[in-house]
């Protein structure tokens, strides 16, 4: 791949000055620098979060809970306090109808 010589760099600089104007060039460079700093900071946070999550996962895998402390699970059908999916859907539809009626009353 060919390298950029001084002539090419001068031409590129002149094109940049023509595109952005001499007055806006410092502001553009400042904005570019801030964007790069923000990008670097965010990627650093992502890397730290990835390292933290792998440490947490490793700790969680090394300490399994004892089987005596796990509560027995009760299926939803056997537990009468838990409404079925149909009951929850019916309740949501009724609430939706009430809200629509209230909204229609407000508009009238």
Automatic annotation (TrEMBL):
<comment type="similarity">
    <text>Belongs to the TatA/E family.</text>
</comment>
<keyword id="KW-0813">Transport</keyword>
<dbReference type="GO" id="GO:0008320">
    <property type="term" value="F:protein transmembrane transporter activity"/>
</dbReference>
<keyword id="KW-0653">Protein transport</keyword>
<keyword id="KW-0811">Translocation</keyword>
<comment type="subunit">
    <text>The Tat system comprises two distinct complexes: a TatABC complex, containing multiple copies of TatA, TatB and TatC subunits, and a separate TatA complex, containing only TatA subunits. Substrates initially bind to the TatABC complex, which probably triggers association of the separate TatA complex to form the active translocon.</text>
</comment>
<dbReference type="GO" id="GO:0033281">
    <property type="term" value="C:TAT protein transport complex"/>
</dbReference>
<feature type="compositionally biased region" description="Pro residues">
    <location>
        <begin position="63"/>
        <end position="74"/>
    </location>
</feature>
<dbReference type="InterPro" id="IPR003369">
    <property type="entry name" value="TatA/B/E"/>
</dbReference>
<comment type="function">
    <text>Part of the twin-arginine translocation (Tat) system that transports large folded proteins containing a characteristic twin-arginine motif in their signal peptide across membranes. TatA could form the protein-conducting channel of the Tat system.</text>
</comment>
<dbReference type="GO" id="GO:0043953">
    <property type="term" value="P:protein transport by the Tat complex"/>
</dbReference>
<keyword id="KW-1133">Transmembrane helix</keyword>
<protein>
    <recommendedName>
        <fullName>Sec-independent protein translocase protein TatA</fullName>
    </recommendedName>
</protein>
<dbReference type="Pfam" id="PF02416">
    <property type="entry name" value="TatA_B_E"/>
</dbReference>
<keyword id="KW-0812">Transmembrane</keyword>
<keyword id="KW-0472">Membrane</keyword>
<keyword id="KW-1003">Cell membrane</keyword>
<feature type="transmembrane region" description="Helical">
    <location>
        <begin position="6"/>
        <end position="22"/>
    </location>
</feature>
<dbReference type="InterPro" id="IPR006312">
    <property type="entry name" value="TatA/E"/>
</dbReference>
<feature type="region of interest" description="Disordered">
    <location>
        <begin position="45"/>
        <end position="84"/>
    </location>
</feature>
